[in-house]
Amino acid sequence: MVIVVVLVIIALLTLVAMTFCELMLAEREASELAATRVQAESLAASGAEAARCFLALTSQEQTDLGGWYDNQTRFRGVVVVDDPQPEYRGRFALVAPAMEDGYRRGIRFGLEDESTRLNLNALIAAEQRTPGAGRTLLMALPGMTETIADSILDWIDADDEPREFGAEVEYYSALEPPYAPKNGPLATVEELLLVRDVTPQLLFGVDANHNGYRDAHEPDPMSIENVDNADGSMDCGWAAFLTLASMERNVRPDGAPRIDLNQDDLETLYEELETAFDARWATFIVAYRQNGPYSGTQAGAIAAPAGQLDFSQQGRIKLTTVLDLVGARTQVKFQGQNEATVLETPFPNVPGLINVYLPVLLDYATVNPSPTIPGRININQASRTVLAGIPGMTQELVDEIVAYRASNPIDADPYRRHETWILGDGIVDLDQMKAFMPYVCAGGAVYRAQAIGYFDQSGPSCRIEVILDATQTPAKVLFWRDQSHLGRGYARETLGIEGF
Fold it and tell me: CB 3.0-4.6 Å disulfide test: which of 99, 163, 385, 479 passes with 150?
């Protein structure tokens, strides 16, 4: 009996010991997995920090290093933790949607300019500038209706008065559960799901893992109700075309403030213009501010400093856009002269020639003294969908803009650093360009990065989405979201590993 009892006790102790060992091995594996997960998060964070450091460089330095748009050397498969064993070799990649003929097609390795998207929080300003502009911008989105467009505008405007097809507090308070509209700027794009008739299908499309294209396991791209998705524009839903943070820097190439052409002190304005340009440009601009446009038949003279301007005379007009100077004339009476002189503009309305002088003028002069300008759309990179919503834009103009622009900004002609290249290339006329100016730009300074941290073989991965405001140095993080629950999204071979 004693022997049997002893054998039973030994067997029980053995089982306890084995269970304890198995539990400890499981705990060790869990600890290693947790540590590897933390490493993957750090790898992805390293990618976001690499983007911040790259944006801190000057434009020329960025160009010399391959640029921010598509740069596999700097942003694909970058080794952070090197190790002879592939399961411990950690990397990051920065992924952004590629653009082909104005449509999102595949991926590239770089950053995404937020100005290629429609800024929802700038819609009310557009409405105040041009009634109906906000609805026009929204109606270009596939599947958008007047009811949803007006409801979005009602959600973000400050009043409780519903628009023609919109909805305000009366509608939302009758829901179950009831809630009130925001009546202010959106905090996230996902907040649109609270707006009347906005569905997850419309907002996110069929791209469930947000990797930029439809995978085999995702729904049929034609399954979105009441939406023609033949071109694939709605694979990623409206979220792919929307932002809350687009902005551009309104400064000179060296970072100094641009010259405010509408400033009240005209003598200071003349001195600043003469220093930046020459006396001829300075004389005409100040004379135009003092006297306005001349529409008479008298022959004009070249705007040269033939006399001294009377700086005691106040400016009679303010420019609505720098383009007011293009093709204009003015009449001025210089000090000591009895008769007024008609001055011809040094900025002739001649396609081709416009691309010579206008980029220089726009580099240093502005009619908006703010250091940043929010909400304008980057015509050099925006999708056809976003371009089509710009008030006054036609399908023919969209086709021409897309056909003329460079696929990679680093390859673009220098004069395309300003949106007026479409005027200089003859795609639009002067009146059209003036109408487009409040809505378009040639590039912003806020960027979206999708950073993925991973290991060459097996192990967890981390995927984050970050928005960086490069209007200041170093770039400020405006938004940070962990998307790891959506999966890595891309094969390791695509992101870059040893040998690929």
Answer: 163
- The residue with tokens 């002067």 is 430
Residues 440, 379: contact at Cβ < 8 Å?
yes
The structural domains of the chain, ordered by start, are 1-116+246-250+372-500 (no CATH), 118-241 (1.10.40), 259-366 (no CATH)
Cβ within 8 Å of residue 148, ≥6 positions away? 138, 195, 196, 197, 198, 202
377 contacts 114 by C-beta, under 8 angstroms: no
User: For all residues of the chain together, what is the average pLDDT?
Assistant: 90
In eight-state DSSP terms, residue 258 is: P
Nearest residue to 72 (alpha-carbon basis) of 376, 425, 364, 494: 494
Enumerate the β-bridge partners of residue 366: 260
Q: Give me the amino acid identity at 149.
A: A
- Decide: helix, strand or coil at residue 363: helix
Instruction: Report the C-alpha gap between 419 and 404 in whole angstroms.
Output: 13
Mean pLDDT of 143-154: 95
Q: Which residues pair with 352 in a beta bridge?
A: none
Tell me the pLDDT tens digit for each residue of 234-247.
Answer: 878 899 999 999 99
Long-range contacts at 390-394 (CB < 8 A, ≥ 24 apart): 390/137, 390/436, 390/439, 390/440, 391/126, 391/130, 391/132, 391/133, 391/136, 391/137, 391/435, 391/439, 392/432, 392/435, 392/436, 393/436
Ranges 43-52, 207-216, 226-235, 312-321, most confident: 43-52
Strands 462-469 and 476-482 come out as antiparallel
Report the alpha-carbon distance of residue 7 to residue 102 in Å, rounded. 78
- Can you read off the two tokens belonging to residue 161? 């008065």
